[in-house]
Write a structure and sequence with these properties.
- The chain has an eight-stranded parallel barrel with strand order 1-2-3-4-5-6-7-8, surrounded by five helices.
- It is an alpha/beta fold.
- It is built from nine helices and eight strands.
Length: about 270
């Protein structure tokens, strides 16, 4: 199975797009995970640069909005169709809202399936706070009713929502692993979606728990004969990253932490056959 390590564009604002993508390429990443608003003025430049640099593209939908379900659904569809025009490997979508009834969130997932069929662009749905898949238990409800549901596994959110490392939710996680087609490799903990630095000894248990979950996903896809798998190390900038009082300076280096995770997982899954 081929492994693609994807770098998030999140946190790279303030520098020219050309410089950001070149830095991603030079660091050894295979692609970029890119989210944008509708009708982004740099779409053409982004697509040209990604092609020249031979960077795979994972499109990220996070911006759908609306004051009613109908308004949200209209915005959601517009964003998915727009991102499909980037010709990405797939779209990673933060879908629905945690307070929508299961019927409304299901309708959104089915809308995404229709768009996928019409555009030929695969759409996976991220496990994320505030969205339909905000906890392991809630995600199970959708898995049971939607046999074709595919997920991006960001298990850091599950930790925060449940205030645990999911020690008592093993059966739910075992049902979720086979549905995960993309990973966001950020390490969370019971009080937040991001540890300060996964290299620190005080976060070893948190890192080990996430590695265990990621291992299960990778092993499933290897056994299933999946052609390729994608991982985005997704430690974020402030306010995801803690900052110092008064100065608001981040206490860690987002780029260095994500690059550490990239190299750790590339080596782990190159040898963990």
């Amino acid at each position: 199975m081929q492994l693609f390590m994807i770098c998030p564009i999140w946190g790279m604002a303030g520098q020219p797009l050309k410089d950001s993508l070149q830095r991603i390429k030079d660091a050894g990443y295979d692609g970029v995970e890119y989210g944008c608003s509708l009708h982004d003025p740099i779409r053409k430049e982004f697509m040209e640069l990604a092609k020249v640099l031979e960077l795979e593209v994972v499109a990220q939908q996070y911006d759908a909005s609306g004051n009613s379900f109908a308004g949200y659904a209209h915005s959601y569809e517009a964003h998915l169709r727009y991102l499909a025009s980037f010709n990405p490997l797939f779209i990673n979508s933060q879908t629905g809202r945690d307070f929508y009834p299961i019927e409304e969130n299901t309708a959104l997932i089915q809308l995404a399936a229709t768009i996928e069929q019409e555009t030929g662009c695969r759409i996976v749905h991220e496990t994320h706070r505030g969205k339909f898949a905000y906890s392991a238990a809630t995600t199970m409800q959708y898995i049971n009713s939607l046999p074709n549901l595919r997920l991006t596994g960001d298990f850091s959110h599950f930790c925060t929502v449940s205030e645990s490392f999911l020690e008592d939710q093993q059966s739910a996680m075992e049902a979720i692993y086979p549905r995960v087609y993309h990973l966001h490799a950020r390490v969370g903990h019971p009080q937040g979606p991001q540890v300060t630095d996964p290299r620190l000894p005080e976060w070893q248990y948190a890192l080990d728990r996430h590695l265990h979950w990621w291992d299960q996903v990778i092993q499933y896809h290897r056994k299933a004969g999946t052609a390729y798998f994608t991982i985005t190390p997704e430690f974020g900038p402030a306010p995801y990253m803690s900052s110092a009082p008064f100065t608001q300076q981040p206490i860690g280096n987002q780029w260095e932490i994500n690059l550490y995770m990239c190299r750790l997982l590339r080596e782990r899954y190159a040898t963990n056959q």
